[in-house]
Design goal:
Elements lengths: L1 H51 L19 H5 L7 H7 L3 H20 L3 H19 L21 H14 L9 H5 L2 H5 L5
Helix pairs in contact: 1-4, 1-6, 4-5, 5-6
Organism: Saccharothrix texasensis
Protein name: Thiosulfate dehydrogenase [quinone] large subunit
Keywords: Membrane, Transmembrane, Transmembrane helix
């Protein structure tokens, strides 16, 4: 009789542990989906604001559709770091504007939809690292002698966004509240897992 009751208690404990693990896994999947969608919206919003001049970071007069350059203002004001002259040379170039805007749009849509998370994470991380380098938070002062805007010389919001992109890509976060599962069944995606 004691053996039966211990066995029953073990079975109930195992069932409770499995249920708790399932709840934690579901909560983790939901948390990653929320991280994925909000991070994707950061990129999509930047595209929309720069394209249409919604008045947050970009005024309507400077909107891309009104002839404004999405890269000129930011890159021409780079005042510190070893890539200062490189960024100044890129500022306002048609190819830089197009690459930047198409990148923001593609990354935003892919990450929100939960598809192509690996290529989106690579592209988004590259964009974030380039923007980090343009602000060069390692410098305490800009070349004009002004204090740097960064409060942390290594990990700023660019690095956090890059880490978020990498996390959602590596965990397959597109399967929850996204099209990731359906995307993974496409023949080309099955044959080329790096496109997931």
């Amino acid at each position: 009789m004691t053996t039966v009751s211990h066995s029953g208690a073990r079975t109930r404990a195992t069932a409770r542990a499995a249920a708790t693990t399932a709840v934690r896994a579901d909560a983790g999947a939901i948390a990653l989906a929320v991280l994925r969608i909000t991070t994707g919206f950061v990129f999509l919003w930047a595209f929309l604001d720069k394209a249409f001049g919604l008045g947050y970071a970009t005024k309507a007069a400077n909107a891309w559709i009104n002839g404004g350059s999405p890269t000129k203002g930011f890159l021409s004001r780079v005042a510190v770091g070893p890539f200062e002259s490189t960024f100044h040379a890129m500022a306002g170039a048609w190819w830089a504007d197009w690459l930047f805007m198409l990148g923001l749009l593609a990354i935003g849509i892919a990450v929100i939809a939960g598809i192509g998370l690996r290529p989106a994470a690579i592209a988004g991380t590259l964009v974030m690292l380039l923007m980090w380098a343009a602000e060069w938070p390692l410098a305490q002062f800009t070349s004009a002698g002004e204090p740097s805007m960064s409060t942390n010389p290594i990990v700023d919001y660019h690095i956090i966004y890059a880490a978020a992109l990498i996390a959602v890509a590596l965990t397959g976060a597109g399967a929850t509240w996204g099209l990731g599962r359906r995307w993974a069944t496409l023949p080309v995606i099955r044959d080329h897992a790096w496109l997931r």
